[in-house]
Known about the structure:
Blueprint (H helix, E strand, L loop, with lengths): L5 E7 L19 E2 L3 E2 L2 H9 L4 E6 L3 H8 L13 E5 L14 H7 L1 H7 L3 E6 L2 E3 L3 H11 L3 E7 L9 E5 L5 E6 L8 E10 H13 L3 H4 L7 H7 L3 E5 L4 E3 L3 H10 L27 E2 L4 E7 L4 E2 L2 E7 L4 E2 L4 E7 L4 E2 L4 E7 L4 E2 L4 E2 L16 E3 L4 E2 L4 E2 L4 E2 L11
Amino acid sequence: MTRTKVLALIMAGGSGGRLGLLTEHRAKPVMPYAGVYRLIDFPLSNCMHSGIPDVWVVEQYLPHSLNDHLSNGRPWDLDRTYGGLRLLQPFQGGEEGGWHRGNADALYRNASLIRGFNPDVVVVLSADHVYTLDYRDVIDDHLERRAEVTMVTTKVEIGEAGRYGTVRVDAEGRIAEFEYKPPSPRSDIVTAEVFVYDARALLRTLDELTASGDEEQSLGDYGEALVPSLVDRGRAYEHRLDGYWRDVGTVDSYWTAHMDLLAPEPPYVLDDPRWPIVTFGVQRRPARVHPSARIEDALISPGCSVRGRVERSVLAPGVRVEEGAVVRDAIVLHDCVIEAGATVDCAVLDEGARIGAGAQLGEPRAKGTEAPSAAEIVLVGRRASVVGGIRIAAGDRVAPVPGAETSVR
């Protein structure tokens, strides 16, 4: 029996502008998650467990920060003599050269490489979603239906659906209607940005869309021309993902995805021995919890030292919470320091931030209240310092400024 040749492409080139300060110095796919992971670990781990040995990562924005983490693919068993991990960046020369102007345009600009690999199926993945999925199940459905594209779909609140591509399906699972980021969604079924394409249909469609004019106008993101063209041909189907799926591309969704992990019965299990999330990271000593510490509903990563109070929060490796300090409803990234007597509420602190003694950030939230909007979450930038005793209001942005101790914007 001929084995189906599969190529996975992880789209990791976006600037992540909706995360504000958090992506000024790193690519969004390497945003920390749950303390010890990075967002790109999820599609990479899914590929590893799904038995996909050829994974290409399409880069553009701040690729060096991403490459440091990818470590030649070793953590995901992709450091192979033949195949394995391949990094694709924008280049000059030829018709396909130039900056990527969306994920469909990125596929077009790498079309010659895809042709050279000659896959039967191309699996296109986003790098900023948290979920577990065996891609083999999607590929099997795709092949059985002889589809040109199979979209993994999931249900969200109707008020959130306008951020995604929405679909309506018939009784056989065929995509009957597709709308890309509609202002007034008519469906709560959205694409989870996992697409399985028939490789020949994908390449042919890219050629058709660019043949009559400027590809910058023809392609853009997948929902502008590529997917609608395949839906119109009637060979587009869904594969429903009923488990946990969370887009973490905004400040509020990033915060909420962490709070999901702290629920009495978390909707997503990170340490499933049958499907572990694999990452690259430097080993640190076990966390130290001192006698003065008070911890409730928190994830404390290796290398942390806690003498103060931590409630409903996630601490990444190396965080120090000094005696008398309080951290509530917060995500504190690597090597931050919260000095004695400081209070941090409803905030995200980027790597290396320091909160001075007695400073107050954000506003306390009653336990169990509705998730905050991005405008209510304090952001502290990478290596920013907040002066001791200062008051930072809910929703403020604190960025490091050379020659100044703190800047609020």
